[in-house]
Amino acid sequence: PAPTVGQTADRSRLASCIAEVDKDADAAYETARQWIAEAHVREAYVCAAIAEASRNKPDMAARQFESLSVDAPDNADRAAMLSRAGNAWLLARDAGRAKAAFARAIAASAKDPDLFVARARAHAMAANWRAAEEDLATAIDLRPGDPLTLLLRAESRMRQSVFDLAEKD
User: What is the dihedral of CA 152, 90, 58, 19, to 10 degrees?
Assistant: First the structure.
């Protein structure tokens, strides 16, 4: 269905808020908080979470994105919020929570190779090279020949001392 007028305005306001994050994350966070106070719309919470990540509060952002995933309107949005949560957990240096968020994102959208690459990053942070390799292999199956994913898989294979397969990648 086409977005309603209110939804279109909220999306436009979200885009403006995100642009403000790039300029001044603290000001954008305050803008988002005011928007939340006046309207309680989902887009305001998204902007607040993005601003929190930019304000060097990735754990707060991750929790907010996870919360937003619960009432996501569809699986694509759920996967997007969980992916953002996973990336925020990576910034917070919490590989376990990142892996869990990416796993839930994959459950919502199993055909997105970027989610498998992202979860591989979490496995790599935990030095679980075999699991990273497996996720990267899945990503390559979904998007064959991707040079970055092949490079990352080669790295994970080198970390496991499987040099012949790393060289093939």
Answer: 20
Residue 2 has pLDDT above 70, yes or no: no
Q: What is the DSSP letter of 135?
A: H
How many Å from the N-terminal Cα to the C-terminal Cα in the chain? Answer: 43
11 pLDDT above the threshold of 70: yes
Distance (Å, whole) CA 120 – CA 46: 25
SS3 126: coil
Residue spans of alpha helices (H) in the chain? 5-23, 25-39, 42-54, 58-70, 75-91, 95-108, 113-125, 129-142, 147-159, 163-168
Rg (CA), the chain: 18
> Which residue pairs, CB below 8 angstroms and at least 24 apart, start in 125-129?
125/90, 125/93, 125/95, 125/98, 126/95, 126/96, 126/99, 127/159, 129/156, 129/157, 129/159, 129/160
Amino acid found at 157 = R
* Torsion-angle region of 49 (φ positive above 0: left; ψ -120 to 50: alpha; else: beta): alpha
Residues 51-76, mean pLDDT to the nearest whole number: 96
